[in-house]
Amino acid sequence: MKNNFVDSIKIFCKSGDGGSGMICFRKGKYIFKSYPDGGSGGNGGNIFIQGNSNICTFIHLRYKKHWIANPGKSGGKNNRTGSNGKNILIEVPLGTIVRDCNGNLIMEVNKNMEKKMLLSGGIGGKGNASFGNKKNKILNFNSKNGVKTKGKWINLELKVLADVGIIGFPNVGKSTLLATITKAKTKVGNYPFTNKIPYVGILNFNFKSIVIADIPGIIENASHGKGLGHNFLRHIERNYILLFLIFSEEKNEKKQYLILLNELKKFNPELLKKKRLLVASKSDIIKDCDKKRILNEFLNIKENITFISYKNKNEINNLLKKIFNILINKKTIFS
Ligand SMILES: Nc1nc2c(ncn2[C@@H]2O[C@H](COP(=O)(O)OP(=O)(O)OP(=O)(O)O)[C@@H](O)[C@H]2O)c(=O)[nH]1
Ligand SMILES: [Mg+2]
């Protein structure tokens, strides 16, 4: 099955060339001295990138990889300026990072309807009417060609914008948690790698909206391509809180946590500087004695773990309060 979630793509963009200026002399029945009246060329079309909150992938760009704007029209008689080439608007999901083919950052698009110029069209060349002054206009045979533009390959990369990213091994209950606290429709299944792409939901809590992302399962050596690999970890680079969801029937909770930390570190060590929230899932099927053991194990490494079950409203509310309390320090969310 073809994956409909395209989170990085390369496209070719070229803004329009400028139209050339015209050389033309005005003569007429009642005009005794001919004078230059060639108009200037129009400007080439610009290419803009615009954020659209209704799209969440680059799938629409998969089948249209070449974006070439029209050139400006040449100038005309009677000092008429040629028309400008039509602008092109490329819509992208929020959280898009635009780079040139050398990896240099060109722009980021994070707001809905935010429109930024990617490539400006070539300026139209001047017609001979624009040159010289009143005295030497008659002999003016000057005009200029419009500026020619060069096309380039552009890399678009998506980093899902979310306040909280839920990460964990496959099948630990990440999607169940997302579906419990938001209206997101993610697939839940009792088998590993049910979800192969990130899902996002909006949590409304205490009259604030918090964006939560469910990241596909990570396993040991994901950095070497195991499981789904670790490329989608780029989606947590923009998260404020990383919610580590842990569950183990084999009593290896601490090991799971350390493996996850290690995979994150291999992908981008900066991820370890983010706020973390440790959560043990499926508390309804964990025995009390195991809960105590897990709590102590994590206390030994100076971490506090919260138990949740999607069936227990109090536990879910307790988790939401914790998320909210951490996010209160993130001014951009609650301002
Ligand atoms: N008893 C119990 N079962 C749970 C709980 N949360 C999730 N499950 C079950 O665990 C299984 C896996 O849940 P998912 O939410 O699909 O797990 P996931 O982490 O998203 O899995 P992947 O997408 O494969 O990585 C499903 O059968 C859920 O019903 C819980 O709190 N209690
Ligand atoms: Mg899932």
What would you say this structure looks like, in words?
The chain has 335 residues and is α/β, with parallel strands linked by helices. It folds into 2 domains: 8-158, GTP1/OBG domain (Spo0b-associated Gtp-binding Protein, Chain: A), CATH 2.70.210; 162-327, 3-Layer(aba) Sandwich (Rossmann fold). Helix content is 18%, strand content 26%. It contains 6 helices and 16 strands. The protein has helices at 59-62, 174-181, 253-267, 288-300, 313-327, 331-334; strands at 8-14, 25-28, 31-36, 47-51, 66-68, 88-92, 96-100, 105-109, 115-119, 152-158, 164-168, 199-205, 208-214, 241-246, 275-280, 305-307. α4 (288-300) links the parallel β15 and β16. The longest helix has 15 residues, at 253-267. It is elongated. The two termini are 43 Å apart. The mean pLDDT is 88. The structure holds guanosine-5'-triphosphate (GTP) and magnesium ion (MG). Residues 174-175, 194-195, 214 line the site of magnesium ion (MG).
Relevant terms:
Rossmann fold, 2 domains, five-stranded mixed beta sheet, 16 strands, binds guanosine-5'-triphosphate
Can you describe this structure in just a few lines?
The chain has helices at residues 59-62, 174-181, 253-267, 288-300, 313-327, 331-334; strands at 8-14, 25-28, 31-36, 47-51, 66-68, 88-92, 96-100, 105-109, 115-119, 152-158, 164-168, 199-205, 208-214, 241-246, 275-280, 305-307. The protein is α/β, with parallel strands linked by helices and 335 residues long.
